[in-house]
Specification:
alpha/beta, Arc Repressor Mutant, subunit A, five-stranded mixed β-sheet, about 15% strand
Length: about 270
């Protein structure tokens, strides 16, 4: 069995869940919801995407060479999937994993493989249906190894030929897209503006500042945590940090400290 999954934490979780079984996990470590993904399965597109990542995020997190190496290795492993293999694609109700699902189906379109799907969002609903509380996850990476093993046994569904063809067509469209930001709304991938989350980041900054008496600035990391917790979209800390720096450059946020580290940065709304 081959598993395809999207995101670093989801990749680690699946590897741990199936560590004692003869399963192969192919994990794509990038966030497909942001950045240029046109021809991201080809050399030109890969270079363009990681050039954008480095220019946007390098001063925040440092080198992304490990991510690029892992992504290239995953693409290579996907291309080596043989006819007759059984492949399970893991996804959730967020733009990155839904884009990854569609691009993967597009890249597998010429292979005679048995494709199945696990949607961890709906699987978690079923898993918790007899409990008094509801656990709403935003990504496959939110699931632990025990849950992932349960989902594989009880929530795996085959992809119909019609659904697979739909995903292939959408994947091919995405690989031609010039969009920089993609949102997941009402079951569809929607092209969005790079400034999509800016108003919400400003709102969260104001809210956190109002909760603290006699403070003019607030730690950027606290704002990042609030945005991640309260956003309707599944947002990474790196993306929020990037938008905070953009808001500073556009003079919508003022700051004290160092732009090179979110841990040393304090911000306020202008």
């Amino acid at each position: 069995m081959i598993h395809l999954v999207f995101g670093r934490s989801a990749r680690s979780g699946l590897k741990h869940a199936f560590r004692k079984q003869n399963h192969k996990v192919i994990g794509f470590p990038i966030d497909f919801s942001v950045g240029p993904i046109k021809t991201i399965h080809e050399e030109r597109g890969i270079n363009h995407y990681f050039s954008w990542v480095n220019s946007s995020f390098q001063s925040v997190l440092g080198s992304f060479e490990d991510g690029q190496t892992c992504y290239r290795q995953s693409l290579q492993e996907l291309s080596e999937v043989d006819d007759g293999e059984h492949v399970t694609i893991w996804t959730c109700e967020n733009a990155s994993e839904q884009v990854g699902l569609r691009i993967s189906c597009s890249l597998l379109k010429d292979k005679n493989v048995d494709l199945k799907l696990v949607n961890t969002f709906t699987a978690m609903d079923d898993y918790m249906k007899h409990e008094d509380v509801r656990m709403e996850i935003r990504s496959t990476g939110d699931c632990n190894a025990e849950q992932l093993t349960h989902f594989y046994k009880h929530s795996t569904v085959p992809l119909s030929e019609e659904m697979r063809n739909d995903y292939v067509q959408e994947g091919e469209r995405l690989l031609r897209s010039k969009s920089m930001v993609r949102s997941w709304r009402q079951g569809e991938i929607v092209d969005d503006l790079e400034t999509r989350d800016d108003a919400f980041i400003l709102e969260c900054t104001r809210r956190v500042l109002n909760e603290i008496a006699n403070e003019e600035f607030i730690l950027a990391t606290r704002v990042i945590g609030t945005v991640m917790a309260d956003s309707e979209q599944s947002l990474s800390d790196v993306w929020i940090a990037y938008r905070i720096r953009s808001l500073i450059h556009s003079h919508q946020l003022a700051y004290e400290g160092s732009l090179q580290s979110m841990r040393l940065l304090n911000i306020k709304v202008v």
